[in-house]
Amino acid sequence: MKQLLIALSILMLSACASTKSDFKFDGSTPESTQAGVNKVLKALKPQDSMRFLGALISIQFSDVQSAEDIIGDPTMMGEMNYFIIGKKIDGLNYYEVLEVASSSASKVESSVAE
Asked: pLDDT per residue over 41-52, tens digit each?
């Protein structure tokens, strides 16, 4: 029984690690983008989830030049726009998404209380 528990633990840890680098986002539709984001979020620790969500928000707003861009586009307010995000992360993995976000002019900072 102990061996089975150890084997399952190793399998779960390796699945989380491989999700970050092996999984590629399908940004062809908003639905496929959202499904990919949800899959990755389920595999992340809470701190990594916050960092990843911040990266997605940075990517979503990376082309915004002024407040008028946001006010004039209701799809930019209130929730994640998986159509915009999908176009920018299609074919990327978790690490590449973080890299794209870090090069964006839009920055999101998060702080998680421990």
From this structure: 999 999 999 999
